[in-house]
Design a protein that fits this description.
Layout: H1 2-29, H2 31-62, H3 67-72, E1 74-76, H4 82-113, H5 124-163, E2 169-171, H6 172-189, H7 192-201, H8 207-212, H9 214-229, H10 234-266, H11 287-292, H12 296-299, H13 303-315, H14 319-330, H15 347-358, H16 363-367, H17 372-375, H18 378-391, H19 394-426, E3 437-440, H20 446-479, H21 485-524, E4 529-532, H22 533-563, H23 567-572, H24 574-588, H25 592-617
Parallel strand pairs: 1-2, 3-4
Helix pairs in contact: 1-4, 1-14, 2-4, 4-6, 5-6, 7-10, 9-10, 13-14, 18-20, 19-20, 20-21, 21-22, 22-25, 24-25
């Protein structure tokens, strides 16, 4: 049986390879037609951009802006070849989009031969109607975006940046690629009714799935609309979401009509009774007949008879029939009460059962008298136990996460990020004038993306202690840990105080000192200082929160000493700590050797401060803050 299956697989692979070669040969034969279609699309797009395209796209971008904001919006090229290469790139994309349908028309017959495409017969008029409808829907979606959505969207981006004190100097590459992606998204989104109808008609996705999961679709559309739109304003999000919901409803109506029409056309009166399935001559059936035949037609066959029929099909070159026959025969359950008789299971069944027994990962563990749950699934069961404990608190955790993220994002979007920038610039040394330092947005949504990322970081930082606190009782019960929730709460409070205190110190002293040094060094060389918003604010974040995390290193060392880790152990292991930090810096931190030292040296300095503090508190290790380990009750057994 295995040899026959292997031969059938080999023949199928050879058929696929031959089909690919035939498609390539046909493509070479029609290469002139494909090349002309590609060149036509490329030249039209390139010439349109060269003559009127850029002016049209700029007008669409600025049409919804006030005159004051429009004067501050600029489009810049970062390299001498940005405009030309961008026109070539867009021309290539348009050319491929024009040539792709011609290529697919050649490839679809081969896909049907390989049973990789549904065998749905369509007339030329139906194909032409689908093509016209698809083009019309795409144009409708693009027109909606350019006439209504884009002016509103770019006005929000620009006004948000200007209100925060940023200069909207858009890179022509980022701006054009953003426009191109949004154009494709809304054009394809308008194809939703047609796509749903095709999927339902070909039964790739049943119509009942679309009809029963409409609530999930509405939620998904709302999420996509909030991501694409980016604005927290419900009105702007509704401008994106409502048309998609209407298109989904229209798709349900059209798909239901198409599916009903197909079922009516296929419905035939069946007045004659069915015959005996066991009377079917399986050897005379073709591949489609074998796949459609009832299971009873194969249950009375012996394994030798199936092998004989499959070998005959292979000799005739019909490997698809042989594969289908073996697949249908393998679907039949073999047991002691099967129609074959009371004989023992076949060799194939015994091999499967033997392989399952030999590959059972718990066999050796059980033979040694150990619990397989502890040996193999210990970590899995621990995680599952903790997650099951957190399930009762999930509403509270998720609620805090959403509230914090929405609050921070709304505050940043409505002027908070500008307030942070102005407050930080006031903290710079007097020799650095704020007007000498400008923060720009090269991408239209760059400020919005930073606000989302920062809100996500803050919400995660606020929620993570809650997750650990609520999971600690489960960890104590599962891993026999001794630290109680009250002690753990003290740890959380101490680390939080260290993080907040260090962050305040970093924001007030370290971050202004670092940025003032960088700006002064740049200005002294006669260079205009224009920082991208993401680079500028992430630098502030790292030099602020990074100092807070460094402050937690000595705090953590004191807490560990109270938990039972001796001072002499920390002091004697400084070499291992140094090597480990340098290894982590080399693997995790990008930017080469310099960034590795920038990451590692401050942590080593904080580790040294912690050793100094512990040396004073413990009299150089003669009296540790704790005399025994407090984490594990049965530590003496370890």
């Amino acid at each position: 049986m295995a040899s026959v299956g292997g031969a059938a697989t080999t023949r199928s692979q050879l058929a696929i390879r031959d089909t690919v070669f035939v498609v390539i040969a046909e493509a070479r034969t029609n290469l002139l037609r494909l090349t002309l279609a590609f060149l036509a699309g490329f030249l039209v797009a390139f010439y349109w951009l060269w003559t009127v395209g850029w002016d049209f796209l700029k007008e669409v971008t600025e049409s919804g802006m006030t005159p004051a904001i429009r004067q501050q919006v600029q489009f810049i090229a970062q390299t001498p070849f940005d405009v030309v290469l961008l026109q070539v790139k867009i021309g290539i994309i348009v050319g491929l989009a024009v040539a792709l349908p011609l290529f697919l028309l050649q490839f679809l017959p081969r896909l049907r031969d390989l049973n990789l495409w549904p065998a749905v017969s369509l007339t030329r008029w139906q194909v032409a109607g689908i093509a016209v409808l698809s083009t019309a829907l795409f144009v409708l979606g693009v027109s909606y975006a350019y006439e209504l959505l884009f002016p509103f969207l770019f006005e929000f981006f620009a006004s948000n940046a200007v209100t925060a004190g940023f200069a909207p100097h858009y890179s022509i590459v980022d701006w054009a690629e953003f426009l191109l992606v949004l154009t494709a998204v809304f054009g394809v989104a308008a194809e939703l009714p047609l796509l749903m109808s095709v999927l339902a008609y070909t039964e790739i996705v049943p119509y009942d799935v679309f009809r029963q999961r409409w609530r999930h679709a509405v939620v998904a559309i709302t999420i996509v609309a909030s991501i694409v739109n980016g604005s927290p304003d419900p009105l702007s999000m509704a401008i994106v979401a409502l048309p998609l919901v209407v298109l989904y409803g229209l798709g349900l109506v059209i798909a239901g009509f198409v599916v009903s029409s197909r079922h009516l056309s296929q419905r035939t009166a069946q007045t004659t009774p069915f015959g005996d399935p066991t009377a079917l001559d399986v050897g005379a059936l073709d591949t489609a007949g074998i796949e459609a035949a009832p299971r009873e037609a194969f249950e009375h066959l012996s394994e030798e008879a199936v092998l004989s029929i499959a070998n005959d099909a292979l000799d005739e070159g019909d490997d698809t029939k042989a594969r289908a026959l073996l697949d249908r025969y393998d679907e039949i359950p073999f047991d002691s009460e099967s129609t074959v008789g009371d004989a023992a299971p076949s060799d194939r069944t015994r091999a499967v059962e033997t392989g399952r027994a030999e590959n059972d990962p718990t066999r050796d563990v059980t033979a040694l008298g150990r619990d397989p749950d502890e040996e193999l699934g210990g970590y899995y069961y621990d995680i599952a136990f903790v997650l099951d404990t957190l399930r009762s608190k999930s509403i509270r955790i998720v609620g805090v996460f959403i509230v914090v993220m929405a609050t921070v994002f709304s505050w940043l979007s409505y002027g908070g990020i500008g307030s942070v920038q102005r407050d930080f610039l006031r903290r710079l040394p007097p020799q650095i004038h704020p007007e000498e330092l400008s923060v720009i947005t090269l991408h239209p949504a760059e400020a919005l993306v930073f606000e989302m990322k920062f809100s996500l970081v803050v919400a995660t930082a606020v929620t993570l202690p809650m997750v650990v606190y609520y999971s600690w009782p489960a960890l104590r019960a599962r891993k026999n840990l001794e630290m109680r929730s009250g002690t753990f709460l003290i740890w959380c409070v101490a680390l939080t105080v260290g993080l907040v205190g260090g962050s305040v110190l970093g924001y007030a002293i370290v971050a202004p000192s670092v940025i003032s040094y960088l700006v002064a060094d740049t200005i002294s060389n006669g260079i205009i200082v224009s920082y991208r918003i993401s680079a500028f604010f992430w630098l502030i974040f790292y030099t602020t929160v990074g100092v807070g995390l460094l402050a937690d290193v000595p705090v953590m060392m004191v807490l560990l000493n109270r938990a039972g880790v001796p001072f002499r152990t920390m002091a004697s292991r400084w070499r291992e700590v140094t090597v480990g930090l340098f290894f982590i810096g080399a693997v995790v931190v990008p930017g080469g050797v310099v960034m590795m030292f920038v990451f590692t040296l401050p942590i080593l300095f904080a580790y040294g401060i912690g050793l100094l503090v512990l040396a004073i508190m413990t009299a150089n290790g003669r009296r540790d803050l704790s005399t025994r380990p407090a984490f594990v009750r049965n530590h003496r057994r370890l």
